[in-house]
Design brief:
Radius of gyration: 21 Å
Family: Belongs to the isochorismate synthase family.
Enzyme class: isomerase
Shape: globular
Number of strands: 23
Largest sheet: 13 strands, mixed
Structural class: alpha+beta
CATH architecture of one domain: 4-Layer Sandwich
CATH topology of one domain: Anthranilate synthase
GO molecular function, one term: isochorismate synthase activity
Number of helices: 8
EC number: 5.4.4.2
Keywords: Isomerase
């Protein structure tokens, strides 16, 4: 922790400022990017004024304590006063207690937009950076990750077998597999972000420490006393001969998908309820339509029982994570079985990702439809080094006793499409 004081200055961007009307993602200068943008609003950042790396079961506690202490060392000059103003940390936390690394980053510069108001926050005298042209990744090739599609099918089949032959304790488990993409040129995170935002504008397009994606699922949002979550579970995908309306009707009428969804919504509400004086959970889900899939969705809303500072957002995230949407039901049985069946480290895939500010507000989603950039070689041919990038993509789904392994593999393939198409330049 720093022993000196920092200053965070937030001001409205003047309409004459060239950054006032440009899309937020267009303002990222290059290098490591920080992003949380949906339908043109949100936050982007760059530079690093402070950083926490942590891991293990205490990662939420460590992150909360570090952020609170750091904020005590920051003098705030905030002329805007909206959520996301003042000091903001971008966070990406590991899915599991062990293994997996977690990170919080305080950027040197953040540009935000909410309700038509655009502002900029700088830490101390952050340098002005020119926006470099977005680089193309070149040729993209794919290879099996640590768990191939075949291995994933076997893991699903084994999970189904265990649920069908057990005493009924385990009702759902969420499994995933990975796919490795190699690019012939260094991978510019902004190339992925722009392409994802163009095709999935109603998702939260994120980037934190090399974890880049577009998630449709909001784990927790907090504004003062108000808290909100969007739970997704139960999936269908477009197929020839069926309209979206027909597929949506099938999804709503599917006992398997409705059951899977109810587990997820109930688990979130059960864990969030102790923090709230009021909690609203719709009796039936709606359908969220994306370009590649359709999801059953439930928006949960509540009012905190305590003062705004009494229940920190990271404390609440620790209480609700993992929900049945990314873990299973009951989680105490499902989560240990995930690592046994997948035989891979998820890292920060399916973990909380987003931002928190110095007044307790923030938005944390789940790192889904994403890739972790693992390697970035920039050496030129004349230096004798390799050139190109490597990114590990993830996708999976909820497995229940009547799941079909072949259909689950197809569902995972559909969920891999957003990042694959973004890598390949599809808009």
């Amino acid at each position: 922790m720093t022993s000196w004081r920092l200053t965070a200055r937030t001001r409205r961007l003047d309409p004459t400022d060239p950054r006032h009307d440009r899309p937020l993602l267009d303002l990222l200068p290059g290098g490591e990017s920080l992003s949380w943008v949906r339908e043109g609003e949100g936050l982007v950042g760059w530079g690093c004024a402070a950083r926490l790396d942590t891991s293990g079961a205490d990662r939420f506690l460590d992150a909360d304590a570090w952020w609170r202490q750091l904020c005590r060392h920051i003098d705030v000059e905030d002329a805007v006063g909206l959520p996301g103003c003042g000091p903001v940390a971008f966070a990406s936390l590991a899915f599991a207690d062990d293994p997996g690394d977690s990170v919080l980053v305080l950027p040197e510069v953040v540009v935000g937009e909410r309700d038509g108001v655009r502002w900029i926050t700088t830490i101390d005298d952050a340098p002005e950076l020119e926006v470099e042209p977005v680089r193309q990744p070149g040729t993209v090739s794919y290879s099996d990750g640590r768990l191939s599609s075949t291995g994933y099918r076997q893991a699903v089949a084994e999970a189904v077998r265990r649920m069908r032959t057990s005493d009924g304790g385990l009702r759902k488990i969420v499994l995933a597999h990975d796919l490795v993409a190699n690019t012939s040129e260094p991978l510019d995170e902004r190339f992925l972000l722009h392409n994802l935002a163009a095709r999935y504008s109603n998702c939260w397009t994120f980037a934190v420490d090399g974890m880049v994606g577009a998630t449709p699922e909001l784990l927790l949002e907090r504004r003062g006393y108000e808290v909100r979550s969007r739970v997704l579970a139960g999936t269908a995908w477009p197929h020839p001969g069926h309209t979206d309306d027909e597929i949506a009707a099938e999804l709503l009428g599917s006992a398997k998908n409705r059951s899977e969804h109810s587990y997820a919504a109930e688990s979130l509400a059960e864990r969030l309820r102790p923090f709230c004086s009021e909690l609203s959970v719709p009796s039936a889900p709606s359908v969220l339509r994306l370009r590649n899939v359709l999801h059953l969705a439930t928006d949960v809303e509540g009012k905190l029982a305590d003062t705004p500072d009494g229940a920190g957002l990271l404390n609440m995230v620790e209480a609700v994570h993992p929900t049945a949407a990314v873990g299973g039901t009951p989680t105490t049985e499902a989560v240990p079985l995930i690592s046994e069946l997948e035989r891979m480290d998820r890292g920060r895939y399916a973990g909380p990702i987003g931002w928190i500010d110095g007044t307790g507000n923030g938005e944390l989603g789940l790192a889904l439809r994403c890739g972790q950039i693992e390697q970035q070689n920039t050496a030129g041919a004349g230096s004798g080094g390799a050139r190109g990038g490597r990114v590990r993509l993830f996708a999976g789904g909820g497995i229940v006793p009547d799941s079909d392994p072949d259909l689950e593999v197809a569902e995972a393939e559909a969920k891999l499409l957003p990042v694959r198409e973004a890598l390949e330049g599809v808009r």
